[in-house]
Amino acid sequence: MLQNKTQGAASIRKCLAVIDAFTLAVPRLTLSEIAKAIKAPMPTVSRIVAVLCEEGFLEKNDDRTYQLGWKCCRMGAVFDAGMPIKTLALPHMKKLRDTCNETVSLYLRRGIERICYEQVQSAHALKRISVPGEIYPLWAGGTGKCFLAYMSADEIQAVKEAAPCAYQQRWDSVMKQAQLVRISGYSYSIAEREAGISSVAAPVFDFTGKPAACLTISGPSIRFTDELVSKIILAILNESRELSLSLGASDAMVRFPVPANFPHLQSL
Are the C-beta atoms of 150 and 125 separated by less than 8 Å? Predict the structure, then answer.
């Protein structure tokens, strides 16, 4: 009986692996490409794909490639329906984009990682883009520090262990910057995770007092002058506060002091 259960779980995982092989960058795959992606023999993949097509999770195209089917689309809609923060956040994100004309992203935390959940892009030809659904680490960048600032000791330790050695060696500095988020309400990062990219991030709270999400404004460092960064900080503090209040956070919880001289610009 235990063997049958184990085999059944393995079959389910293979089906899920086939669906997970499709990405925004590669939305169509042939049978051989699927087999290579999930490291399974062609006969096995052929059987799984046939069943997924019958059930509406995959569709076969005229060129013999496959793509996600209507049931996957429905699942995505159901996921969105269960995450009202997206609907609430979009007006604030658009306002931030219009204010600074840089890309605005909404991130959610999943364990020791963060996921780009929604994005409003800059109108500039040269801009920073994160693909919704893409996963990033918490050990680097302003967004990561906004989450780290409110995580438990065990969770922080797990993030540290997953970080590259270079970050582990200066972990005290990483955490010092993260703790500043509790005082200022934002984090500023210059080319920390990606060369040439700067960002300003602010946590978004709900009634629990912990970040439900994080708003991040990012773009080419060459455009992030002291004047623009100061403007972004004031704007993101205001919008993250308003969004937090709409999610049930108390006023006291999100009332950070208005920056007077932006000391971060001299210290980084």
Answer: no
- CATH architecture of structural domain 2-76: Orthogonal Bundle (1.10)
Angstrom distance (rounded) from CA 200 to CA 162: 23
Sequential pLDDT tens for the chain (268 residues): 445 556 678 889 999 999 999 987 789 999 999 999 999 999 999 999 999 999 999 999 999 999 999 898 888 777 666 667 888 999 999 999 999 999 999 999 999 999 999 999 999 998 888 878 889 999 988 999 999 999 999 999 999 999 999 999 999 999 999 999 999 999 998 878 778 899 999 999 988 888 999 999 999 999 999 999 999 999 999 999 999 999 888 888 888 887 766 544 433 3
Both structure tokens of 41: 């023999």
Q: Where in the chain is the domain with CATH 3.30.450.40?
A: 83-267
CATH of region 83-267, choose from 3.40.50.11540, 3.30.450.40, 3.40.50.970, 3.40.50.620:
3.30.450.40
β-pairing, 135-137 vs 187-190, is: unpaired
Q: Are 182 and 149 in contact (CB under 8 A)?
A: yes
Gyration radius of the chain's alpha carbons: 21
Q: How far apart are CA 15 and CA 60, in angstroms?
A: 16
Q: Identify the H or E element spanning 204.
A: strand 197-205
Residues of the chain with CATH 1.10.10.10: 2-76
